[in-house]
Amino acid sequence: MIAALKAHLPILLVAVPLFAAPLCALFRHPLFAWTVSMLVTAAAFAGSLCLLAMVMAGGPLSYYLGGWAPPWGIEFRLDAVNAIILVIVAGVGAVTMAYARASVGQEISRAAQPLFYTAMLLCLAGLMGVAATGDAFNLFVFLEISSLSSYVIIAMGAERDKRALTSAYTYLMMGTIGATFYVIGIGLIYTVTGTLNMADMAARIGELEQTRTIPVAFAFILVGLALKLAMYPLHLWLPNAYTYAPTVVTAFLAATSTKVAGYASLRFIYTVFAADFAFEERTLLFLFLPLGLVAMFASSAVAIFQSDVKRLLAYSSIAQVGYMVLGVSYGNVTGLSATILHLFNHALMKGGLFLAVGCVIFRTGSHSIDAFRGLGRQMPWTMAAFVIGGLALIGLPATVGFVSKWYLVLGAFERGWWPVALLIVASSLLAVIYIWRVVEIAYLQPAPAGVAVKEAPLSLLLPCWVLILACVVFGVYADPTVTIAETAAQSLFFDPGAGLPPMDGP
Amino acid sequence: MTHYLILRVIAKLMVGPIMLFALYVQFHGDFGPGGGFQAGVIFAAALILYGLVFDLTALRRFASLELLCSVMALGWLLYVGVGFATMLLGGRFLDYDFLAADPVAGQHIGILLIELGVGITVAATMLIIFEVYAGRKIATEGEDDA
Amino acid sequence: MIDFAQVLSHYNYWVIITLMMTGLYIIVARGNLIKKIVGLNIFQVSVFLFYITISKVAGGTAPILTGDPDTVYSNPLPHVLILTAIVVGVATTALGLALVVRIKEAFGTIEEDDILEIEHALESETEPQA
Amino acid sequence: MMMTPELALILSLAIPAIGALGIAVTGARPNLREAVTLLTAGALFAVVLWLLQHHLEGGVATLTVLNLLPNLPIAFTVEPLGLVFALVASGLWIVTSVYSIGYMRGNDEANQTRFYVCFAIALASAVGIAFAGNMLTLFLFYEILTISTYPLVAHKETPEAKAGARIYLGILLTTSILFLLTALIWTWFEAGTLNFRLGGILAGQIEGPAVAILFALYMFGIGKAALLPFHGWLPAAMVAPTPVSALLHAVAVVKAGVFTVLKVAVYIFGVDFLAESGAADWLLWVAAFTLIATSVIAVTKDNLKARLAYSTVSQLAYVTLGVGLATSMGIVGGTMQIVAHALGKITLFMCAGAIYVATHKTEISQMRGLGRLMPFTFGAFLLGSFSIIGLPPTGGAWSKWYLVMGAADTSQLVMIGVLMGSSLLAIAYLIPVVARGFFLPLSDQEDRPQPPGYEISTIRWSEMREAPIWCVVPPCLTAVLSVLVYFAAPTIAAFISPIVGQ
Question: Which among A393, A406, A415 is the top mutation candidate for probing chain D, defined by the most D β-carbons within 10 Å of its own β-carbon?
Answer without folding.
Answer: A406
